[in-house]
User: Fold this.
Amino acid sequence: MINLDFKKSGGLIPAIAQDADSGEVLMLAYMNEEAWEKTLSTGIVHYFSRSRNALWKKGETSGNIQEVKEIRIDCDNDCILVKIHQVGDAACHTGYRSCFYRVIKNDVLTISGEKIFNPEDIYGV
Assistant:
C-alpha cells in the first residue's frame, strides 16, 4: 500500500518529471490524490493544474504526453519523482523540451536551447 501524505501540503504533492533515459529534469508540477490514482491506473502522467484548479492529463492538448517508466517516492512520502518517456519532443508549455530552459550566466538569465514548437499554434494563446 502506498500512503502518500497529501494532507501535509494542502492536498498537493510536488511531482518531478525526469526523462528515464537521459536523466534530464523536464518539469515540476503537482499531483492531488485524483491525479496520482489516474497516473497509476493509466500509466500516463496526470497532474493537478493550480491555475485551472483541475485535473490535467499531460499532453492532452499538445500531444506531448508522458508515459510512466518508474515512480519513486521520497522518504517523507510527500514528493514524487516520475521517470518518464516524453512522447513528442517538448515537456514545457512554452515550447521548450524542459521547463528548465533558462540558465543564469554572469548574473543574467539566458535561454538555453531552442523552441520545439510555438505555443500559439498549439494552445491558441
